[in-house]
From TrEMBL:
The keyword Transmembrane helix does not apply. It comes from Neobacillus ginsengisoli. The active site is at E377 (nucleophile). Its EC number is 3.2.1.86. The keyword Hydrolase applies. This is 6-phospho-beta-glucosidase. Belongs to the glycosyl hydrolase 1 family. Keywords: Glycosidase, Hydrolase. It comes from the Bacteria. It is an enzyme of class 3 (hydrolase). One of its GO terms (molecular function) is 6-phospho-beta-glucosidase activity. It holds the Pfam family Glyco_hydro_1.
Length: 478
């Protein structure tokens, strides 16, 4: 049997985000964030994709799954125990900004929030697990959204700076791996969660979106510089949603169209954060969409100085593009659109499954940037069934992960520098795009359902034992 090779010290583990696991949405003086006002069910995806969201809670109409989530807030020791049993080397999580600065614009950090993450990091270290922390994962303080207009407002950069310096200072001896903004490029299609504002009309989106991006790039560079100063041995990365774009056919017009889509979606943010410059292709795009950025003196120098150490990225799917497409061809459910790829199968939610696309992504990113890469999200959202004897036989998840891990090993042989793999949703949690619990990714089943019912009991799935073995053999036995 073929043995797959991974480097010594490869960071095997799992990934989560505070808003999707913690719950305790009013505990420890936490303030409300964007995820707290997103309802569960089909409504959520419509909100994320369409203009005009009001950022209010309508309890009479909807259930809000992130409020309790899977109660990691109270059960983190038990959950980390499961991760340790699987042999995790790394655990990716985010800090909820609103636990540290409940409204976002306070001058002093909230001690209860800081103490909570001290507890989590101490527990991880007790088991030899390295925390990998995202500074902002779709959970901006709601107050900054409502009172300041989200990232459109330059003042938010100052609030973010205060937040990141507070946590770097507090956790400087506990966290070495950091990432700035989760899937920063996703705001090009879903601005609400990442940029903290809802576009009112489709045609008005360009100027505010790219101005908000400029503020995030400045904030990201401030964070990178502060991280290096405060924690000298730290590594801080960007985090991109990477979905390689394929041309539907060899018609040069389609090839060019696919290239442009790839430049804008996959490379624009990464170019700024990794190379420290706005890429040349974006200048034409700005001109054609009448975008004129307000850039303050010193911003471009700061962006140049604050480049990231590694590239973290999520990989779930590829995307196939054609210049002129019909509705019938569209890849329904594929998170970021495109047309249906006839060579690929899709998940129950319509996300196209393409392991070779991960190898392609790793090669593309490494060719372009020559920086260490870290796959910080990848996984299969699926319906799981608990059998009468209590087993959960998620062989489909094992197949999915095995194929993607093989693809990573091929990319390493291709010469790519890959430092780790934290599969998404190592424990079942609230889905980001649909707010469902039934879209499960975990190795650990959580008894919690779309209507909010469930005991929150944790159970090991078949994939739990499989992944444990993968880690124990450093990926040799898949
Ligand atoms: C990524 C996000 O886009 O995909 C996660 O960073 C999210 O927050 C994950 O949960 C899977 O998406 P979903 O919608 O299936 O939860």
């Amino acid at each position: 049997m073929r043995k797959y090779q991974f480097p010594e010290g490869f960071l095997w583990g799992g990934a989560t985000a505070a808003n999707q696991i913690e719950g305790g949405f009013y505990e420890g003086n936490k303030g409300l964030n964007i995820a707290d006002v997103l309802p569960g069910g089909k409504e959520r995806y419509k909100i994320l994709m369409n203009p005009g969201f009001d950022f209010k809670i309508h309890r009479d109409q909807y259930y809000y799954p992130n409020h309790e989530a899977i109660d990691f807030y109270h059960r983190y020791k038990e959950d980390i125990g499961f991760f340790a049993e699987m042999g995790f080397k790394a655990f990716r999580m985010s800090i909820a900004w609103t636990r540290i600065f409940p409204n976002g614009d306070e001058l002093e950090a909230n001690e209860e929030g800081l103490a909570f993450y001290d507890g989590v990091f101490d527990e991880l270290h007790k088991h030899g697990i390295q925390p990998v922390v995202t500074l902002s994962h779709y959970e901006m303080p709601l107050h900054l959204v409502k009172e300041y207009g989200g990232w459109r407002n330059r003042q938010v950069v100052t609030f973010f700076e205060r937040y990141v310096k507070a946590i770097f200072n507090r956790y400087k001896n506990k966290v070495k791996f950091w990432m700035t903004f989760n899937e920063i490029n996703s705001s090009l299609v879903m601005p609400i969660q990442g940029l903290g504002f809802s576009i009112q009309k489709e045609e008005d989106k360009y100027q505010p979106t790219f101005q908000a991006y400029h503020h995030q790039f400045v904030a990201s560079s401030i964070a990178v510089k502060a991280c290096h100063e405060i924690i000298p041995n730290s590594k801080i990365g960007c985090m991109i949603l990477f979905a390689p774009v394929y041309s539907f056919d060899c018609n040069p017009e389609n090839v060019m169209y696919a290239l442009q889509e790839e430049q804008l979606f996959n490379y624009f943010c990464a170019d700024v954060q990794v190379r420290g410059e706005y890429p040349s292709f974006i200048k034409r795009y700005f001109k054609e969409h009448h975008i004129e950025l307000e850039i303050q003196e010193g911003d471009l120098e700061l962006i140049k100085e604050g480049t990231v150490d590694y590239i973290g990225f999520s990989y779930y799917m590829s995307r196939t593009e054609k210049k002129v497409k019909t509705d019938a061809e569209s890849a329904q459910g594929n998170l970021i659109g495109g047309i249906r790829n006839p060579f690929l199968k899709a998940s129950d939610w319509g996300w196209e499954i393409d392991p070779e696309g991960l190898r392609i992504s790793l090669n593309k990113l490494y060719d372009r940037y020559q920086k260490p890469l870290f796959v910080v999200e990848n996984g299969l959202g699926a319906y799981d069934k608990v059998e009468e004897d209590g087993t959960i036989n998620d062989t489909y998840r094992i197949d999915y992960l095995r194929d993607h891990i093989k693809a990573m090993s091929e990319a390493i042989e291709d010469g790519v520098e890959l430092i780790g793999y934290t599969s998404w949703g190592c424990i079942d949690m609230v889905s980001m795009s649909t707010g469902e619990f039934s879209k499960r990714y975990g190795f650990i089943y959580v008894d919690k359902h779309d209507d909010g019912s469930g005991s929150l009991k944790r159970m090991r799935k078949k994939s739990f034992f499989w992944y444990k073995d993968v880690i124990a053999t450093n990926g040799e036995r898949l």
